[in-house]
């Protein structure tokens, strides 16, 4: 068994453990729902409507809203269930296996492990997980576990089944330090965009729930009551997305420098360049939306979702089906 | 603040907006306001993103001219319609340009007043302390020990804040002295730098690159090129390009080496390195040997030389029936696949009884499929074979219409070998000669390395390299502005801008209570922690015992009210 086989084995094991983590996180969500059910309905309403700061500090809530801390201001406080802890531990274990798989692939190939679609997917999902696990040390985002492990599982599944290629040496066009920098930073940016995407998606459903509660209408997806408010989710998404945006800006610049070295022009509207630009502009729009009256909240969340969809499209569709100078999918 | 009126921080519009009868100037002003509003900027940004999409779906003349030609052949109905809406030139089209020009007008109209305001704000003092700090973020209090002098306490807070980079204003006239402090002006500076640098990029890209050029030239091993306009195979000058600015240096392609993967069987034959060995002779300098590689251009004579493509250039000689050479040249053959099956065209206009054209296939390592068709099984020269389909008749060169050297127009020609003619294509190995049909003469596939051992073909066919030679005097500026974009972005997104206040409030019993609070201006996740930290440091700095325990949780989240 050579190093590459070990890498594959490690990756499949990681996927198996991610699957277990996904199940644990799903059980946790179910538990949250039943915990909400068990709480007296009156308390729920009180907790939501009587959000302590929004009454006491009245008007200042709008002033301080954008500086709201990372604390979970859920309508229904919810502790740590065993399944949540198991989910996080399993995710950590799967991440370690995933890391080993990636590093082994790099050692086996004697170069950085990001030079074709299979490897992009492997490093990209590894960084999505890394960003998620790092974020957990700063804010309680464990409720996103189902979402993130699910996303990574799907992407890894596609990569392993559809994108797998044997190790090949770097073609001359990719022999550059810029491969190391540009692709890595792009993948890291994708990690932050993914987290922003997950948060924005939850923000949208949370906002729906808050509206229903305010109108005294029944809500579905009861576990949402244990999640932070949509305003907090929006702030968290924003923070993740702006880090992603800075990294993406760097990706764009580094890509231009590389294009200049390889092709003699820094910008040529090649399909891949076009899509990198489109993504950049969408997120610039998102940042503007957050600063525009009438566009905060759900509208900006939609832009964050569209932005990440464009990232996925750029990776999964443009790389494979569009022609251009960047034909390095290895497929 | 002078951000656009619909910035989320600015005051909401008064109810029942009075619409005065607008005269022309009023109307203009209204229009300008709309154009420079956040909402317009946002819509234009989203429009720009959408408008950029079609250019990735349809081939573009700028990046893929052959793709456009192909598109016209494949979609004869649709293509002209698309062309009429500039779908093949999206990024220079009227509609795409008008979107980004409007966006940048909006940007300039937005940034100029903001810059003016920011310069004023930089000189202004922080605003007066609000009457009720308890309504603000991170509000916290400490009890000062008995006998504390309120003015001194506030003054020490002023020093502390100043040392932390706050701009401060002391309000010590009343009975409850306070200090008001603000920091993070760099945030707005960064934002303005970011937006202005975007304008800088647009201008340098738009105008600066007009002074440059880009040209292509194919060189076969051994050939030279002198950097003058006529020596280029194709040449695209910028709008303001002056051909006297070309420095006539000489570039010789001495060798072209390709290294193939031979260890890794799943990538067997994949090229791992291309090296063009060149000699550059600049004016009044001695010749310099150097290399051009992919990703490693050569900078010479004010231009950058890039290695873009390569392939084989077999040397073909045609003699008339008397044995006089009527044609001999090394012809670049264009690679058709990854094993370098290569296609080329030979045109012999003079010297034979009829004009002669030949379409040749070069198989670097010839192999035969079951069907009898030839293909190349390896890109290097293991067992090279050249096949030629010969045509005679009119090459169509005399009509004054420029023709491609890579294509043969066979409309007025008769095919003599290959295809459906019944006679096989001519087949030649390096060094071999064959008779042309109809006694026209002979054709020879020259061996470029005749001294090699028999069976060693590795040097038998010359290679060519295609170079892109460019100059873009603006690109250094574009890079500089890009760096400013990045720096501006970092400061504007991550430098917290906040106001902080400290007040010494007097209680009824005469003791002094120190109040601390802050206000975020923009996204500021660390505000509460910063206020708490200030309270701790300040109270510790000038008193010993901290008698109050009204301390917020370190990441309290919401403002932590007490009393
Ligand atoms: C080429 C077009 C533009 C791009 C790519 C762009 C991009 C951005 C980005 C990335 C930010 C966030 C980073 C920062 O604060 O510096 C931002 C902020 C901002 N932009 Fe633009 N912008 C553009 C045009 C405009 C225009 C036309 C306006 C005026 C209407 C404008 C007004 C603002 C304002 C006020 C902010 C601060 C937002 C805040 O307070 O958080 N921008 N812009």
From TrEMBL, chain A:
Keywords: Cytochrome c-type biogenesis, Membrane, Plasmid, Transmembrane, Transmembrane helix
Membrane topology designation: Multi-pass membrane protein
NCBIfam families: cytochr_II_ccsB
Cytochrome c assembly protein domain ranges (all copies): 116-326
Pfam families: Cytochrom_C_asm (PF01578)
GO BP terms, alphabetized: cytochrome complex assembly
GO-annotated cellular components: plasma membrane
InterPro entries cross-referenced by the UniProt entry: Cyt_c_assembly (IPR002541), Cyt_c_biogenesis_CcsA (IPR017562), Cyt_c_biogenesis_CcsA/CcmC (IPR045062)
Positions of transmembrane segments: 6-25, 86-108, 120-136, 143-165, 177-202, 242-259, 274-289, 301-322
MF terms in GO: heme binding
Subcellular location: Membrane
Protein name from the UniProt record: Cytochrome C biogenesis protein
């Amino acid at each position: 068994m050579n190093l590459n086989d070990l890498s594959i084995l490690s990756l499949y094991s990681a996927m198996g453990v991610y699957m277990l983590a996904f199940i644990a996180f799903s059980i946790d969500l179910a538990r949250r729902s039943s915990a909400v059910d068990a709480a007296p309905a009156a308390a729920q309403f009180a907790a939501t409507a009587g959000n302590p700061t929004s009454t006491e500090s009245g008007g200042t809530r709008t002033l301080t809203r954008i500086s709201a801390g990372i604390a979970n201001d859920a309508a229904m406080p919810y502790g740590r269930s065993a399944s949540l802890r198991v989910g996080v531990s399993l995710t950590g274990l799967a991440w370690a296996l995933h890391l080993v798989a990636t590093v082994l692939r790099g050692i086996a190939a004697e170069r950085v492990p990001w030079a074709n679609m299979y490897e992009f997917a492997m490093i990209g999902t590894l960084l999505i997980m890394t960003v998620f696990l790092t974020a957990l040390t700063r804010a309680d985002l464990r409720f996103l576990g189902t979402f993130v492990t699910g996303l990574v599982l799907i992407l890894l599944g596609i990569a392993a089944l559809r994108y797998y290629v044997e190790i090949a040496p770097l073609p001359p066009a990719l022999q550059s330090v810029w491969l190391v920098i540009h692709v890595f930073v792009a993948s890291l940016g994708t990690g932050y965009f993914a987290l922003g995407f997950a948060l924005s998606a939850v923000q949208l459903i949370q906002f729906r729930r808050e509206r229903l509660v305010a109108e005294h209408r029944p809500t579905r997806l009861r576990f949402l009551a244990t999640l932070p408010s949509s305003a907090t989710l929006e702030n968290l998404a924003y923070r993740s997305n702006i880090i992603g945006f800075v990294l993406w800006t760097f990706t764009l610049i580094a890509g231009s420098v590389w294009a200049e070295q390889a092709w003699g022009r820094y910008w040529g509207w090649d399909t891949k360049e076009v899509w990198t630009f489109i993504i950049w502009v969408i997120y610039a729009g998102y940042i503007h939306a957050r600063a525009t009256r009438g566009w905060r909240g759900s509208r900006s969340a939609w832009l964050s979702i569209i932005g990440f969809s464009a990232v996925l499209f750029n990776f999964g569709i443009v790389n494979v089906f569009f022609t251009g100078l960047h034909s390095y999918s290895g497929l | 603040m002078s951000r656009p009126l619909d910035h989320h921080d600015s005051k909401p519009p008064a109810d029942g907006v009075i619409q005065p009868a607008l005269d022309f100037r009023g109307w203009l002003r209204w229009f300008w306001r709309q154009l420079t509003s956040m909402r317009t900027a946002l819509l234009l940004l989203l429009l720009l993103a959408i408008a950029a999409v079609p250019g990735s779906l349809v081939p573009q003349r700028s990046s893929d001219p052959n793709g456009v030609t192909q598109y016209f052949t494949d979609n004869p109905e649709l293509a002209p319609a698309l062309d009429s809406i500039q779908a093949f030139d999206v990024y220079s089209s009227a509609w795409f340009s008008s979107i980004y020009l409007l966006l940048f007008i909006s940007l300039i109209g937005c940034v100029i007043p903001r810059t003016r305001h920011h310069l004023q704000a930089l000189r202004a003092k922080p605003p007066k302390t609000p009457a009720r700090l308890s309504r603000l973020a991170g509000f916290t209090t400490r009890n000062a020990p008995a006998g504390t002098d309120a003015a001194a306490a506030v003054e020490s807070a002023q020093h502390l804040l100043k040392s932390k980079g706050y701009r401060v204003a002391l309000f010590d006239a009343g009975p409850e002295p306070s200090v008001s402090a603000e920091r993070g002006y760099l945030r707005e500076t960064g934002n303005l730098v970011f937006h202005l640098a975007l304008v800088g990029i647009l201008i340098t890209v738009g105008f600066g690159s007009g002074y440059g050029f880009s040209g292509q030239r194919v060189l076969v091993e051994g050939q030279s090129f002198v950097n003058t306009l006529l020596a280029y195979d194709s040449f695209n000058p910028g709008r303001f390009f002056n051909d006297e600015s070309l420095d006539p240096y000489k570039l010789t392609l001495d060798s072209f080496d390709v290294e193939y993967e031979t260890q890794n069987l799943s990538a067997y034959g994949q090229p791992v390195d291309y090296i063009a060995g060149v000699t550059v002779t600049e004016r009044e300098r001695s010749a310099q040997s150097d290399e051009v590689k992919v990703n490693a251009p050569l900078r010479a004579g004010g231009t950058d030389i890039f290695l873009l493509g390569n392939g084989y250039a077999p040397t073909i000689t045609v003699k008339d029936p008397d044995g006089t050479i009527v044609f001999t040249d090394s012809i670049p053959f264009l690679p058709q696949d990854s094993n370098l099956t290569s296609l080329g065209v030979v045109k012999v206009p003079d010297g034979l009884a009829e004009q002669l054209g030949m379409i040749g296939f070069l198989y670097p390592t010839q192999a035969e499929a079951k069907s009898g068709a030839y293909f190349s099984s390896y890109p290097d020269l293991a067992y090279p074979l050249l096949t030629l389909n010969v045509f005679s008749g009119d090459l169509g060169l005399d009509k004054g219409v420029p023709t491609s050297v890579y294509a043969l127009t066979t409309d007025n020609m008769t095919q003599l070998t290959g295809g459906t003619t019944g006679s096989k294509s001519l087949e030649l190995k390096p060094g071999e000669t064959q008779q042309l049909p109809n006694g026209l003469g002979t054709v020879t596939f020259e061996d470029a390395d005749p001294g090699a051992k028999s069976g060693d073909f590795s040097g038998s066919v010359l290679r060519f390299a295609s170079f892109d030679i460019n100059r873009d005097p603006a690109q250094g500026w574009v890079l500089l502005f890009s760096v400013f974009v990045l720096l501006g972005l970092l400061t504007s997104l991550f430098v917290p801008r906040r106001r902080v206040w400290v007040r010494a409030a007097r209680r009824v019993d005469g003791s002094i209570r120190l109040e601390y609070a802050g206000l975020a201006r923009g996204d500021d996740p660390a505000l509460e922690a910063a206020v708490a930290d200030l309270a701790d440091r300040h109270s510790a700095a000038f008193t010993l015992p901290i008698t109050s325990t009204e301390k917020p949780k370190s990441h309290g989240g919401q403002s932590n009210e007490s009393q």
